[in-house]
Amino acid sequence: MPFYQRIEVDDNTALFVWKITESYNDLFREVSLKDTSLARLEGMKSESHQKGFLAVRMLLQYNGYSDFDLYYDEFGKPHLNDGVNISISHSFGFSVIILSNKNIGIDLELRRDLVKKIAYKFAEEKFVYEYENNSSEFISMLTVIWGIKEAVFKVRNEIGISFKDHIFVRPFQMNEKKTTALLDFNALKSEFLVYFTEIENYTLVWLWETES
Ligand SMILES: CC(C)(COP(=O)(O)OP(=O)(O)OC[C@H]1O[C@@H](n2cnc3c(N)ncnc32)[C@H](O)[C@@H]1OP(=O)(O)O)[C@@H](O)C(=O)NCCC(=O)NCCS
């Protein structure tokens, strides 16, 4: 089952989810790729990564674009030739893209126990202490926080941003499905409006800057 879901965020923003059930060859047959993309694909070490990359191209084609409309800047941030903003994420079984007139960020993460072990590296201590012992939602919550920080980084990818020291997430409940975040880095202070949801055992986060 390839195309999985469209989420209408607002009049000018929508996100698209592809569930990867096809074989590599089936996906490869369906997409047209630039030479540079072909070279990148061939250089990827895992088939899972290759399928994620191809599924992103399927989502582009679903939206009337192709790999030929997509280019990357020197930081690795993707752009579309027509100026529509795009953000991309893939994680094992799913690929997602978001298209908008705003500079948006998206992140998809598989929820794993591992996130508890590395929480001290990226989450504010208040989150770790408050939820550590009590909550079956601990992994869900930490995965949202992780996704938020990845997505903020995709919007404002200044060199030197630290997830723990510069990106702060306002406390939230899982059932609220939204929160805000602050990037406080050097002279730059930016607020982000954040939405999140869960798809199977994955967490999907999308956000954009509201003020700076
Ligand atoms: C770039 C980064 C955000 C990618 O996130 P990820 O969760 O590893 O992978 P995802 O699948 O969600 O996203 C990958 C996509 O992000 C996009 N991307 C890569 N670099 C980007 C950048 N600088 N800005 C915006 N988007 C970027 C690309 O589209 C890429 O997919 P593609 O190359 O196949 O098109 C991440 O690897 C990173 O460097 N994070 C910052 C470093 C950091 O502080 N890490 C953790 C410290 S605790």
Output the number of helix runs: 7
The set of bound ligands, ions and cofactors reads: coenzyme A
Q: Specify the helix fraction band.
A: 25-40%
Beta strands, count: 11
CATH class of the largest domain: Alpha Beta
Short synopsis of the structure:
By secondary structure, the chain is an alpha+beta fold. 33% of the residues lie in helices and 35% in strands.
Give a written overview of the molecule.
By secondary structure, the chain is an alpha+beta fold. It has 2 domains: 3-102, Ribosomal Protein L22, Chain A (Alpha-Beta Complex), CATH 3.90.470; 110-211, Ribosomal Protein L22, Chain A, CATH 3.90.470. It is built from 7 helices and 11 strands. The chain has helices spanning 24-30, 35-43, 47-62, 114-122, 125-131, 138-155, 163-166; strands at residues 3-10, 13-19, 70-72, 78-80, 85-91, 94-100, 104-110, 167-169, 178-185, 188-199, 202-211. The chain has a 5-stranded antiparallel β-sheet. A 4-stranded antiparallel β-sheet has the order 1-2-6-5, with helices on one face. The longest helix has 18 residues, at 138-155. The chain is globular. The chain binds coenzyme A. Coenzyme A binds next to strand 5, helix 4 and helix 6.
Notable traits:
11 strands; binds coenzyme A; 5-stranded antiparallel β-sheet; 2 domains; 35% strand; Ribosomal Protein L22, Chain A; alpha+beta; globular; 212 residues; 7 helices; 33% helix; 4-stranded antiparallel β-sheet
